[in-house]
Design brief:
Helix content is 46%, strand content 14%. By secondary structure, it is α+β, with helices and mostly antiparallel strands.
């Protein structure tokens, strides 16, 4: 749990509580895996009540709106522990759109933001398209002014958590008008006419949260559902990406720690040729490399969070969040691969934690910007600023 890292007493209490919550979720992983990600009726609600009891509902939202008001570092501590759990059971710790409160209108706050903070509503994002993933500017979806509102059109891919959400953030390019071609972000309820699921693909992981392809066909929304101003869409997306990249890094830390612990315990018990396999250098070196890389990734991620809490220049934050996500996600992938190898045939069974993480962690090198995109961001900032400001 990183006891050697300097933390306040409040930080330590949050970390301990988050670990206890994760430990309560762990026993349900195999059951969820074999049931398509779903839990028995009533269990999710029980877990949500537990999250509320611990004060972990909307930890990334302002206290004055009813959120947890956690620092970036405290959020990392929570997400790290949540990352120890497979099958997205940890997603019960819901983190709404933290970029939204400071730009939302009173109506948007009352209708969407505050109820979401209270756990009464859930959001999803419709940004990615078939021909636009990491290159967000390549989206074809449009928003066309229509009287006192807008018409939204487009087909969005990978709309994560659509089946658990009741409203969506839609990003499109403005068609016509003074800001033609610029991005705009809208919020709308999923029961708005013209929103339909095209199909729901199956993915490598076994989550209860689906990622369907969703069509928006002449979806009419009032002008009051535009977030911020016309042209602000990309700014909001970048802020969200920064936040999510850091939290992905944090969850990768927890996954790697769990894998190292489980693989080490197995290696101590599993015998081959008359001794525990932990006694063989081939096993020792895989675990030693994994532990070393975890420590490096943890220090990087923790320090990035502290920089955010210290109001570090936002461009440096952007680069450091990319570095943390890049290194932590690739580290966790290597750890998972080694863990499967250590477990041997058992590591290929879905009931084994290494097999589940081997599948689940793969997407962390893709979503919220691929590893290649992170490298481009880092290199761009290196060219502009030099190494010093980026590495402290």
């Amino acid at each position: 749990m990183g006891q050697s890292y300097p933390m306040s007493e409040a930080d330590r209490e949050i970390q301990t509580a988050a670990r206890a919550l994760a430990d309560e979720l762990l026993p349900h992983e195999v059951e969820a895996e074999l049931a398509g990600g779903e839990l028995p009726e009533g269990l999710l609600e029980e877990h949500r009540r537990r999250v509320a009891e611990l004060g972990f509902e909307a930890i990334n939202m302002p206290k004055e709106l009813g959120g947890g008001g956690f620092t970036a570092f405290q959020q990392v501590l929570v997400q790290e522990q949540i990352g120890r759990v497979t099958n997205a059971l940890g997603w019960v710790v819901h983190t709404p759109a933290s970029w939204l409160p400071k730009v939302a209108t009173t109506e948007q706050l009352d209708r969407w933001v505050v109820p979401t903070i209270r756990g009464e509503r859930r959001e999803c994002y419709a940004i990615t398209e078939e021909g636009a993933g990491s290159d967000v500017d390549a989206i074809k979806a449009t928003a066309t002014r229509d009287g006192d509102g807008y018409l939204l059109n487009g087909v969005k891919w990978h709309v994560t958590s659509f089946n658990h959400a009741d409203h969506v953030f839609f990003q499109g390019k403005l068609a016509g008008g003074a800001n033609a071609g610029a991005h705009a972000m809208f919020v709308l309820d999923l029961d708005t006419p013209g929103v339909r699921v095209v199909r729901t693909p199956a993915y490598s992981h076994t989550y209860p949260y689906h990622h369907p392809v969703v069509a928006f066909e002449d979806v009419r929304v009032p002008a009051g559902q535009l977030i911020g101003a016309e042209g602000d869409g990309m700014r909001f997306a970048y802020e969200w990406f920064r936040y999510e990249r850091l939290m992905i890094a944090a969850r990768c830390l927890g996954a790697a720690e769990r894998l190292i612990e489980e693989a080490t315990a197995f290696a101590r018990e599993r015998h081959a040729y008359g001794q525990p396999i932990f006694g063989y250098q081939g096993i020792q070196f895989m675990l030693a490399d994994s532990l070393t890389e975890l420590w490096a990734a943890r220090l990087m991620t923790y320090q990035t969070a502290h920089g955010i809490d210290g109001d570090l220049d936002v461009k440096v934050q952007h680069a450091q969040c990319s570095m943390a996500k890049l290194y932590a996600s690739e580290m966790a992938g290597r750890v998972a691969d080694r863990a499967v190898q250590i477990f041997g045939g058992r590591g290929y069974m879905r009931e084994n934690v290494a097999e589940r993480f081997y599948r689940e962690l793969r997407v962390d090198r893709i979503w919220e910007g691929t590893s290649e995109i992170q490298r481009s961001i880092i290199a761009d900032q290196l060219a502009k600023r030099g190494a010093g400001p980026l590495t402290g």
